[in-house]
């Protein structure tokens, strides 16, 4: 965790000064004394995972972007699968989600462009303090889930094709366990509601750390298996990406404004705002876009090569 913080601070200190004003100039308006951005008065539709919205992050940082460009951001909070589906249907300009496999499929199929790594937190396995499956402190997330399945302790799944649900299913598969039966409940809801249901039933669930922290005072659950932010297993890492909807597929997509937004949210100023966003003194998200060692593979699907289109 400290490595990520050091990279971020080093990048800021090393002159990563592409600030947000630079983004404004990219879409700057037209001369003749009119210095308003060309996109002023427009609305950007962002489909995004519930965790970025429910934690309050977007409300906290979007004012800066809206005032800079004279625009409105309409953030539609959905599970990752639904957010990508909305974009496939032409109902979004830009997508912010956290399931790299689904993001790669979206890119490969031509619906998305210019994906950027944005930020990260991690997943945690939470449950009642009584911990009936005895998983507290387990260093392996898959072993913890296997123990829950073996004991048939109550587990609440979002069951909504979100990034969290996708991660959960991958973990069950890696654990060699088959979730199902009376002990396993799919809610088909967002993270906040899944945490509420888990509290009511004294059940375990997989949660992103940000949403858990933001709702901890309202639920009766505790972190039993940590993610990598607190030195837990790397398999619980939770990276977020952002990408524009391809205007070649949907000509209604506001590509100029989407790219202005991507430029802004990955700039040092917005990344610093993401790093500074806290709930009850705890950081919820950690910036990933500002780096001294950029990863250019983030722009294309993982495993893609120039020969892929010929296969």
UniProtKB/TrEMBL annotation:
A Pfam family that the UniProt record links to this protein: PBP_like_2
Matching PROSITE patterns: PROKAR_LIPOPROTEIN (PS51257), TAT (PS51318)
Taxonomy, superkingdom: Archaea
InterPro entries referenced in this protein's UniProt entry, alphabetically: ABC-Tungstate_binding, PBP_domain, TAT_signal
Gene3D superfamilies listed in its UniProt record: Periplasmic binding protein-like II (3.40.190.10)
Transmembrane segments: none
Organism: Halorubrum lipolyticum DSM 21995
Protein name: Molybdate transporter
Domain PBP: 45-268
